[in-house]
Amino acid sequence: MIKAIKVRLYPTKKQEELMFKSAGVARFSYNWGLYYLNNCYKDNKKSLSIGELRKVFTKLRNSNEFPWLKEVSAEIPQQALKDLGEAFSKFFNKEADYPKFKKKGKCEVSFFHLNNKFKVENKHISLEKIGYVKMKDEDRLPVGNYKKDKIKVLNPRIKHNGKFWYLSLGLEFDDMEKQKLTNESIGVDLGIKDLAIVSNINKPFKNINKSKEVKRLNKKLKRLQRKVSRKYDKLKSEKAFQKGERLTKTQNIIKLEKEIKLVHKRIADIRLNHIHQTTNAIVKTKPSRIVVEDLNVKGMMKNKHLSKAIGEQGFNKFLTILKYKCEWRDIEFIKADKFFPSSKMCSCCGTIKKDLKLKDRTYKCPNEKCNLVLDRDKNASINLANYKLVV
């Protein structure tokens, strides 16, 4: 089983300089490779393989033309050229557009680290040509020499999010110990008022976007965006720009845009953390199966009144995370049919209420013999729990 791990790094100023240099070399190598391949095809009408391109780059690195290339690990530019090869493969398979040049300040600040050169000890990790970097791990990374101990590491990358440094990688583990599961089947109904309503949990999982902190950050974001917009308007009024002419940003605009980026990142982190906490709480009840709705999120986003709220909830991310956590614990994960009437069906007698509207938050069974009165979302979650039996 492969498990993704993300670790916060605390480099010194000198180490941080080397990290930025490494990311710069990775960006330079990618752009150099793309430029070389474009020219090669233009001149000879032939494409060059990535293996041959890497040999040409090795000669360039060993020459004195760019001496600063030797200040970082040799694996960083080689992996950047491999990434370029993968980008071309996706283009030829019609999975992505033609590769573009990476621009400083707009592309992701990251670089590769060879997977067998890690060494973890005393809350520090050894990075080639950078040294031992302090990290916040919480004992998720195995301690020891990864080359000597033959620990399988997949695609390790060091990344900078505009404020902090992180190490992200995949570790191959033996299958998790099988835990005893109950024979219970539970249903999870996703919504806008609350993120998730679970059939066996009385309290719904709240919509984090309605919390005090997210509201405060959204207000701050709105204020910063207005501020930077006014600065752009002022800059345009001072100089007469022709159509298509590029605008040179002032330092104040650059500072504001960096601050906006960090606020966006903070909001995204809060939402992702809430999804992880919710999915953990659901799988820890140890059911044998979990049934969710097969949501047509793309179609739901067409509703101009609800699209913003739906996008902020992150339903697809929630279902993806819940699915892999179920796979880890051998819990059966089922998506109910799109046309299954979980909201319109009575969870007690099975009567369908055809005239149920979106504004009706309480479900009242139309069957006179039943007369069930229950929260609409709770009723839907119970129907999802019984989905396999119903079908």
Strand order of the largest sheet: 2-7-8-1-5-4-3-6
Strand percentage, roughly? 15-25%
For the secondary structure, the number of strands is 15
Shape, per Cα inertia axes: globular
Rounded to the nearest angstrom, the distance between the terminal CA atoms is 32 Å
Structural class: alpha+beta
Number of helices: 10
Q: What does the main sheet amount to? A: 8 strands, antiparallel
Share of helix among residues?
40-55%
Question: Mean pLDDT score, rounded?
Answer: 89
List low-confidence stretches.
none
Radius of gyration, in Å, reads 27 Å
Element string (H = helix, E = strand): EHHHEEEEEEEEEEHHEHHHEEEHH
Brief summary of the model shown:
The chain is of the alpha+beta class and 391 residues long.
Which terms would index this structure?
single chain; alpha+beta; 8-stranded antiparallel β-sheet; 5-stranded mixed β-sheet; 10 helices; 391 residues
Secondary structure layout plus pairing:
Elements: E1 2-10, H1 13-44, H2 50-62, H3 75-92, E2 109-112, E3 119-121, E4 124-127, E5 131-136, E6 144-145, E7 153-160, E8 165-172, E9 185-190, E10 194-198, E11 205-206, H4 212-238, H5 251-283, E12 289-293, H6 297-300, H7 307-313, H8 315-328, E13 332-336, E14 362-364, E15 373-375, H9 376-385, H10 387-390
Parallel strand pairs: 9-12, 12-13
Antiparallel strand pairs: 1-5, 1-8, 2-7, 3-4, 3-6, 4-5, 7-8, 9-10, 10-11, 14-15
Helix pairs in contact: 1-3, 2-3, 4-5, 5-8
